[in-house]
Design a protein that fits this description.
4 helices, Alpha-Beta Plaits, two-stranded antiparallel sheet, 2 domains
């Protein structure tokens, strides 16, 4: 895994090092009835997302790691070992594909969030966080849904791109075409937001 401060600590899409961490916290905390103090958490969910401030894309190859050292809490960004090299050194690939899934894997297939639900149904978190997906259309086939989409992902070869799609697929995957695209231009420190 790369060390902190290395050149990999950048946006995989535009190569900017202008990153921020957004922490979303949701918790249920028990209240002490005599004092009104909030005490031991009953349930906590904490999600951290690293985002590029130049192109505004999430960075699914980076993760916030929190640990205790000498009595203080340390937060640092680390690379996710199975993703960072593929995403930083790879190029964009666009696949035209169909994923057929059980209908219970799709929360809803109409309304304003339908594309996100269909993308998540097809590829799980990869479909909403790592891949750029465009749902072209979907059709119901009995108790299954065939989701036809264009997917952009980063990989070092067409074989790796196909393997990543296959590994992420939550159903039967059929790739109609797969083509390499050019990488977007690198962001410079002088770019306006």
């Amino acid at each position: 895994m790369p060390s902190a401060g290395a050149s990999w600590l950048r946006c995989y899409r535009c190569w900017s090092s202008n990153l921020e961490v957004q922490i979303h916290y949701e918790g249920i905390l028990k209240v002490e009835p005599d004092s009104g103090e909030v005490i031991t958490p009953v349930d906590e969910v904490r999600e951290a997302v690293v985002q590029c401030l130049d192109c505004l894309h999430d960075q699914p190859h980076l993760v916030l790691t929190t640990y205790e050292e000498d009595g203080r809490t340390i937060n640092r960004i680390d690379a996710i070992e199975d993703r960072w090299e593929r995403m930083v050194t790879g190029t964009p690939w666009v696949a035209s594909c169909t994923v057929t899934v059980d209908q219970d894997q799709v929360e809803a297939c109409s309304g304003p969030e339908a594309a996100d639900f269909l993308s998540h149904g097809a590829f799980g978190d990869h479909g909403t966080r790592e891949f750029f997906t465009h749902v072209r259309f979907h059709k119901h086939e009995g108790d299954r849904i065939a989701i036809h989409m264009l997917v952009e992902l980063y990989a070092r070869s067409s074989e790796e791109a196909a393997e990543v799609l296959e590994a992420a697929s939550r159903g039967t995957l059929a790739i109609t075409s797969l083509a390499e695209e050019s990488r977007p231009p690198a962001a410079s420190g002088d770019d306006a937001h």
